[in-house]
Write a structure and sequence with these properties.
alpha/beta; Rossmann fold; eight-stranded mixed β-sheet; 12 helices; globular
Length: 273
């Protein structure tokens, strides 16, 4: 796996495909492999750079608090180190939050912006849920088991649990197979999520933007849709019916088709044609 030095720390990443550069930013607790169902399709059209954020996967951890804006600065430093001038930026949940900060601060580096299950500011409901995950992780002393037992039920619908328990077990085994995030790194990362507020930056996002939600998502529900869609000038909105927080796993084909359609419409090659 290639690594680069960015912001005085080593960041690990995976590179696949050819075409316009695309940077995929993971969600809470996850490493670059969280987009395993997307990269095989995306890489047919784009050069996919899937990054391990600080304190995840094989990237260096950091001491002390940091913000989601700091993670956006890490992505900018990563792109510079990897000689990526401009890229499609894509992320889900925490990855979407990082993407918003990145697009607001570094507009010239963004070919397009894909925001899946995003939110603008951590409200009281989100804080309560995240605090429960932090308490569970501290009690279990395992981020992987917290993800499976505490976070998964917020990501999928009851119907998926009841009709495809084998699939849930497969996803659980996948989480357990990945490099373990330390409890300290999870608490740092989730604390950044608790303090997230990008509301004042939305008007600075100039890139063509796709915003998606799951119709049954309670975490980052469509309660955030109106503000984001109205304040990000060049945005389009899509709701994945029958999905919760993780449409990329619950409706893999539908998610890939809808997101690829957006990405291909705003590729550099098409813009130049």
């Amino acid at each position: 796996m290639p690594k680069v030095k960015a912001n005085n720390r080593t960041l690990n990443y995976d590179r696949q495909g050819s075409g316009d550069p695309m940077v995929l930013i993971p969600f809470l607790t996850a490493d670059h492999a969280c987009y395993a169902f997307q990269v095989p399709e995306y890489s047919k059209h784009f050069t996919c750079f899937s990054v391990d954020l600080r304190g995840t996967g094989e990237s260096d951890a950091t001491k002390g608090d940091y913000s989601i804006e700091d993670l956006a600065d890490d992505i900018a430093a990563f792109m510079q180190a990897a000689n990526i001038q401009k890229a499609h930026i894509s992320g889900l949940s925490l990855g979407a939050a990082v993407g918003m900060w990145f697009a607001a601060k570094y507009p010239n580096k963004v070919q397009s912006l894909s925001l899946h299950s995003p939110w603008t500011k951590t409200d009281g409901f989100l804080k309560a849920v995240i605090e429960s995950w932090r308490a569970m992780a501290t009690g279990l002393q395992s981020v992987a088991e917290t993800t499976i037992l505490g976070i998964f039920p917020w990501c999928f619908t009851p119907e998926l649990y009841n009709s495809r328990s084998d699939y849930i077990q497969t996803l659980s085994a996948f989480v357990r197979s990945r490099p373990a995030q330390s409890l300290e790194s999870f608490l740092q990362q989730s604390d950044a999520v608790l303090r997230h507020d990008v509301s004042a930056q939305l008007g600075r996002i100039t890139a063509r933007t796709q915003i998606t939600f799951g119709s049954h998502d309670m975490l980052t529900s469509t309660r955030f849709a109106t503000e984001m869609h109205s304040k990000i000038p060049n945005s389009e909105l899509h709701v994945f019916e029958g999905c919760a927080h993780a449409a990329l796993y619950q409706d893999v084909q539908g998610f890939n088709e809808k997101t690829l359609d957006f990405l291909k419409r705003h590729s550099a090659q098409r813009s130049a044609a």
